[in-house]
Specification:
mainly alpha; 79 residues; elongated
Length: 79
């Protein structure tokens, strides 16, 4: 799926397999201690970890809006 997203211009990645491993690492990073201690994370912790991981991944690999698109988006948001 990452390869398709990159091919479609939605992600900027060199290697989809590496990107997939990095994505999983980011999504699970905040839960590692709980898992290592044999615990089960609460649902809100899982949701927050996933949200943070996705945000970080998209900041690193997501397509940046063009300057024109960003200005248009800002203008629409301020309207």
């Amino acid at each position: 799926r990452f390869a398709r997203l990159a091919y479609g211009g939605h992600l900027t990645i060199d290697d989809p397999d590496v990107a997939a491993r990095q994505f999983l690492g980011l999504v699970n990073a905040e839960l590692q201690t709980t898992f290592m201690l044999g615990g089960t994370p609460r649902e809100d912790e899982v949701v927050q970890s996933a949200t943070n991981g996705v945000r970080t991944f998209l900041r690193a690999f997501g397509k940046r809006p063009s300057a024109i698109g960003a200005k248009k988006h800002t203008a629409l948001a301020n309207a």
